[in-house]
Design a protein that fits this description.
alpha+beta, elongated, two-stranded antiparallel ribbon, TolA/TonB C-terminal domain, 4-stranded mixed β-sheet
């Protein structure tokens, strides 16, 4: 007996296609079911009636009084009266404030004003530096400063006893700082020294006190005291 089906008609070949179509149809129906809405007819009719039964509220109309205010009453102009002239009154005599030079009384004694105190000017800021002997031929103030510094350094180097450090048991490089003032007479005064040992301070004061007399420094054309500082360094072997 021969089979009635066509051997080429095999439905199993397209089962994947049929499965996809079925899934798509099922998903579509599910989405439509979620979006489906139903209304209660009784509730809808109640809401419609409630809206229809609303009463319109009568808003009162306010009418503003637009009558203009009455004009102000007329004001009478003030009456101007002319005052009579004052009686003749004698004016007070005003004394003159001018002073006659003959009326000035000269004082019997004239007190002289005390002279201004002398102000010491640092060597760095002096206008006219003190003239050390041998620097008189220089006109420039800066050159005079250099000349004075060189002369003082040379003088101290010759006069200072550097063997004193070895006698005192000092070693290495020693520093002695000396500060002095060239007064308005060109003389050395107010010598101060600082050193590692009192003997070195005494020696520094002795040497600085032997500096020669100079021509005093000037500030604004007036002789003034000038302060000067010099460091003395020497090395003890």
């Amino acid at each position: 007996m021969k089979p009635k089906k066509n051997p080429k008609a095999d439905l199993r070949r397209s089962w994947v296609l049929f499965l996809q179509i079925g899934l798509i149809v099922t998903l579509f129906i599910t989405l439509q079911a979620f979006q489906w809405k139903s209304y209660n007819p009784e509730q809808a009719s109640r809401e419609t009636m409630a809206i229809d039964n609303l009463q319109e509220e009568d808003v009162p109309v306010t009418i503003h009084d637009q009558t203009p205010p009455p004009p102000p009453p007329p004001v009478d102009p003030p009456e101007i009266k002319i005052a009579p002239d004052d009686e003749d009154v004698e004016e007070d005599n005003i004394a003159s404030t001018e002073v006659d030079l003959d009326d000035i009384v000269e004082p019997e004694e004239i007190i002289d004003a005390e002279p201004d105190e002398e102000v010491t000017v640092p060597f760095k800021f002096i206008e006219d530096v003190p003239l050390f002997p041998g620097c008189e031929n220089l006109d420039d103030n800066s050159e005079r400063k250099s000349c004075m510094s060189e002369k003082i350094s040379s003088f101290v180097g010759k006069e200072f006893d550097t063997r004193l450090g070895e006698k005192l048991g000092l070693t290495g490089v020693n520093l002695v700082t000396v500060l002095f003032v060239v007064n308005t007479q060109g003389e050395i005064e107010q010598v101060q020294a600082r050193a590692p040992h009192p003997k070195l301070e005494e020696e520094a004061k002795r040497v600085i006190s032997k500096l020669p007399k100079m021509k005093p420094g000037k500030q604004r054309g007036k002789a003034v005291p000038v302060s000067y500082a010099i460091p003395i360094r020497f090395k003890v072997q």
